[in-house]
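Check the record.
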Amino acid sequence: MIAYENGPHVVTWELTRACQLHCRHCRAQAIPRRNPGELALDEMLPVLDDLAQGFSRPPVLVLTGGDPLERPDLDLIIKAARGRGLTVAVAPSVTPNLTPEVIHRWKTLGVHAVSLSIDGPTAEIHDRFRGFRGTFDRSLTIAKAITDEGIALQINTSVGRQTVDQLPLMGDLVRRLGASSWEVFFVIPTGRARLEDALSADEIEKALHWLADWKETFPFRVTTVGAPQWVRILHAHHPEMPPHVIAREARGFAFIDHRGEVYPNGYLPISAGNVRHTPLSRLYRESPLFRSLRDSSRFLGGCGTCDYRDTCGGSRARAYAVTGNPLGADPGCPFAVMADAG
């Protein structure tokens, strides 16, 4: 079993909350202008040192927002991270700031991967979800620029009531775009996302089984966010293979917000501390919040009794969003729901 207590596999850093889009589900509830409390570049450098030196295996660093392109010093941040040997990915918003020229510049800076959010297979669906016309067509243009530059392309798709029926067509689109990875985000009711936007446990289960069936035909990696029961689904489809450990909140992931607060992930807004005062490596290993979320013996209800509690553990973010307790049962998993009902 992977020892995620020693260090995260991925650290996502919200450089700013500023963004020109107004996405229906936005976790960050993005704002039009930058917050003056954002970490400055000189405050970020010690954090980058810690990421590079504070773990036996440095994590992948994902630079996100808001829209990271709202920061004029983004290239300097990328250079500083790459100069410390970190693997860097960028998750920009698709706005007029993002051009093929920017993608080329990121290639020269050593960016390993770029992720684009595409939430529907047509302009009508995607643009309605993102709040602006033209973002779908622009996303296709930028996706081609990314693959033309030889940068790994990841497509992120938010799955909720408005988009779940489009998953088969989305899978075909991801294939046509030449992506190396498809990350399927199951909407968690936090930020701008409402409870009625999220799928029920049975609907999530059905979507995951579809993904598992079709995964074999996709020439790219498929991962999920907000649905760690993916490990159970995959094991059901391939019982000959032992279930692998799913990385989730505080276990393989850490999230730094624009002010330096450290969260188990971006969808679980409970802070473990601030990198302005305490190194991330220390917060990840020692904070009571992170330690409790890695200890499956503390999970309640169905998640605490499930055979997959050590490999899955349920979505702690969804448990918190719906029940107010990050250690509670995940209401997005029918196994947890049935166990609680029983």
Observations:
- The beta strands are 10-14, 60-64, 88-90, 113-117, 152-159, 181-186, 221-225, 253-256, 261-263, 273-274.
- The CA atoms of residues 107 and 193 lie 33 Å apart.
- The chain has a mean pLDDT of 92.
- The first strand starts at residue 10 and ends at 14.
